[in-house]
């Protein structure tokens, strides 16, 4: 079985759907699950965007695509339905750039640990601490970040996961990464609590995001840990206007693919990533075009 993992999306949800469809076709795999590591950019309206959303969204129009998904045009709805005929819905968990109160309200209304956040059911949110059997794997989800100035990991969910027996979870999906995974401007990055959780749980695989760059593999006892890059980096680096991603295309290292039979994990760096780009992605056209040029069936 194959599981695709996606890094931080920050509202570019149509690029993510197109990426999953194209991954399945161009890499000739059948995806059994698609999991996004948080910072999907799930806000109920632009008025609820956080400061970073307003700041980056002003220069990167595709970061508003989540709002289009909440009230889809017929053309967009067609594209999403075509995509969901070929890939499973995304599962995602909270990052530090979501409306956590709004997401909690969706769970309260559905009385479920996994709930759709858009009317077409393309993206489903999981609660913190949720454990599910997915594609033959026992997967635990923990969102948010450990950042003393503004946010912490969900205490109840973290405590509950810490009580589990080592090896009782196959895959741990978090937004934040373990402490010491990298450094930025002289500051060591990562969460000490997550390091402790990984060392306690000892899952076979740990997947995270948040830091916007590919990082891994790293070993923590029996666990191999990978961090994913941001799916669509900004057009320019704000501090000096240096161009980064002017075409708004999917970044290498922002998607990972796991074969659950062998536990081989690969970062996707394929040239086709550059085919998915633009401020206003026409998902219906892209999916239909790829359908016409689709090759042979999935590899085993």
Describe the structure.
The chain has 300 residues and is an alpha/beta fold. Helix content is 26%, strand content 23%. It contains eight helices and 17 strands. It has helices at 13-26, 51-57, 65-70, 74-84, 100-110, 155-162, 192-201, 283-292, and strands at residues 2-6, 31-36, 90-92, 114-116, 123-126, 131-134, 137-142, 171-174, 182-184, 187-189, 205-208, 215-220, 223-227, 236-237, 242-243, 255-259, 264-267. The strands form four sheets. Strands 4-5-3-2-1-16-17 form a seven-stranded mixed sheet, covered by helices on one side. A hairpin with a 2-residue loop joins strand 12 (215-220) and strand 13. Helix 1 runs parallel beside helix 8 (283-292) and helix 4 (74-84) packs across helix 8.
**What is the distance, rounded to the nearest whole angstrom, between the alpha carbons of the first and last residues?**
9 Å
Which regions are unreliable across 5 or more consecutive residues at pLDDT < 50? 295-300
- How does the overall form come out from the CA principal axes? globular
Strand content: 15-25%
Per DSSP, the total helix count is 8
**Which percent range fits the helix content?**
25-40%
- Describe the biggest sheet? 7 strands, mixed
Radius of gyration: 18 Å
Strand order in the largest sheet: 4-5-3-2-1-16-17
Find the structural class using helix and strand composition.
Answer: alpha/beta
Multimeric organization = single chain
């Amino acid at each position: 079985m194959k599981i695709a993992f996606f890094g931080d999306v920050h509202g570019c949800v149509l690029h993510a759907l197109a990426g999953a469809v194209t991954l399945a076709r161009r890499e000739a795999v059948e995806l059994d699950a698609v999991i996004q590591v948080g910072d999907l950019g799930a806000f109920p309206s632009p008025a609820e965007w956080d400061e970073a959303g307003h700041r980056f969204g002003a220069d990167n129009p595709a970061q508003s695509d989540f709002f289009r998904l909440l009230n889809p045009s017929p053309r967009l709805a067609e594209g999403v339905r075509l995509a969901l005929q070929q890939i499973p819905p995304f599962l995602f968990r909270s990052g530090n750039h979501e409306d956590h109160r709004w997401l909690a309200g969706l769970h309260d209304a559905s009385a479920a640990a996994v709930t759709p956040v858009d009317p077409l059911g393309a993206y489903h949110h999981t609660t913190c601490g949720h454990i599910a059997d997915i594609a033959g794997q026992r997967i635990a989800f923990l969102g948010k970040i450990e950042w003393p100035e503004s946010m912490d990991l969900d205490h109840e969910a973290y405590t509950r996961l810490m009580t589990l027996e080592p090896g009782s979870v196959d895959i741990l999906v978090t937004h934040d990464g373990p402490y010491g995974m990298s450094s930025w401007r002289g500051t060591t990055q990562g969460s000490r609590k997550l390091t402790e959780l990984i060392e306690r749980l000892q899952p076979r695989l740990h997947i995270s995001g948040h830091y916007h760059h590919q990082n891994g593999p790293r070993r923590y006892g029996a666990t191999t840990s990978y961090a994913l890059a941001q799916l669509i980096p900004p057009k320019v680096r704000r501090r000096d206007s240096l161009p980064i991603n002017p075409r708004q295309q999917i970044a290498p290292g922002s998607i990972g693919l796991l074969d659950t039979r062998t536990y081989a994990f690969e970062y996707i760096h394929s040239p086709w990533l550059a085919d998915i780009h633009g401020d206003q992605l026409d998902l219906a056209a892209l999916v239909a075009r790829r359908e016409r040029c689709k090759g042979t069936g999935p590899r085993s």
